[in-house]
Sequence to fold (575 residues):
Amino acid sequence: MRKIWLPVLILLLSVSMMAQVRTGNIYGKVVDTEGNPLPGVTVTLTSATFPTQSTVTDAQGVFRFVSLPPAKDYQIKAEIAGFKTKTESGIIVVIGGNTNITITMEQGVLEEQVTVTAVTPMVDTKKTTVGKNVTQEILQSLPSARDPWNVMAMAPSIIMDRENVGGNESGQQASYYARGDVSGGANNVWALDGVVVTDPAAIGASPIYWDFDSFEEMNVVVGGADVTVQTGGVGLNMVTRRGGNKVSLTGRFYLTDNYFQAKYTGKTYNKINQIKDYGFSLGGPLVRDRAWFWMSYGVQDINEVAINGTPLKPLLEDYNFKINLQPIKNNRFEALLTSGQKKFIGRSASQSFPEGYDQGCPFHWGSPIIKIQDEQMFGNNLLLSGKFAYMNSSFSLIPHSDPNMNHLVMYDATNDVTYDNWYYITKRPMYDGDLHGQYYNDNFLGMSHEIKFGVEYSTRRVTTDSAAPGNLYMMYDLNWTDVDWEGTGNPGFTPGMREMAVYSAYNLDWGVTQYTGFLQDTITKGRLTVLLGVRFDRQQPKINSSTYYTVNDNPVWTQYAEPDVKAAIKLLCLE
Fold:
């Protein structure tokens, strides 16, 4: 499938913001006390969690620091001979935001210094996206359930399929969409530290559950994305924390107990027995001002009762590890490992299937997400970035009473109860590599240009294995008449007898390879902004060798039709 998208937008005082972002920008200008631009000023950016960067203002006095992680402690120092050194501190950068600063320098000797300490106002005149930024302070202070779906529920125009009150829907994925999305949420995008991690099989869903305390900031976008984004659904950008020059160790323990839950007579809702949320994080310098590390571990132990009385006891477990380096000047290297899994004893339990499944993960540490990224800033005008990512969203459903998957599946048609069941194991590996850049020219043809360009190659694959152990399924009905459970006439069947079906395994293996290229120019002249962009996607789907359920060769059900089937029943069932 090929898709070419060529949007042309003409906006006033605005530029679009991409949805899969993990950083923000600082745009600035240095002037003298009369407002004249100062070229040749050395501008240095420092932060406790980001390597020191420096640049020199151009002929228009302009400087910029792009692709910055969210933080509120950035400091800028401006120096030039004949003027007092000027320092601005407390500068805030948010995900997808543009912080604009004008530095006014006074004439004087270089040794004199003027320091301004003030939090930069969070006003972004170039922003056109509709959405919401949620900082760590807000994340930690909100009296709500601790999961990303609750954060998205606070963004404008998003409609959720449930309300998670105090955590009574935690451990489950909510469905959501915005602005009349006719895909039903299939266009939604999940991004972790700039990597698209949307589940390749459950399109629009999260691949894992998350450690809520691992996030530095979240950004929800419901519209206004540029050509770097493939779809137009809700975009959730999650940025994890990072180490700094100071060693930090934090821990948490949250308890939500049934004692604190309001009692409503005659009302049906998910009820909380007890929820425990605990974990820790550790970060600090490996080499001061050069290399940092950060790690965390988190658990949510959930014990609830569903509306229908079914117990819900998922256990969510997450590991995170990140390294940030500055090997050379104006270079940023980042490596991230996130792994999570959901353990759920008795998933899908019901009156017809009382034991339910044991949900787990084929991997011991859970489904992994790995990212390696390197960025290099060349001068004041060019940023190049290369990134590789790997993800494998995987889980398994095994009948609770049959962990070794060797029992005969039996269906009691008299009481409508299934004993044991089919098992289900799925793996969903994803590989992604991309190269992209940003080029800035502040006076080409009398206009300012911000050019984004890039290419990307990705593969996504889904394998699924499901079958009844031994490929056998047995049904019995002690009150048989002349019609079987599917409504098919079978007058020769004797009450109390058994029926047997022979199944083949259910094995699916499919995937897609995608090639992407994009180019975008944001042109600014005074109060007029023109955004021009072109995007090309080529997708190559592939279905590898797969098999589907088949039942015998001719009849759907066979009554002791084959000797081996009858032998199996004699061994496993009472005659």
About this structure: The helical segments are 136-141, 148-152, 563-572.
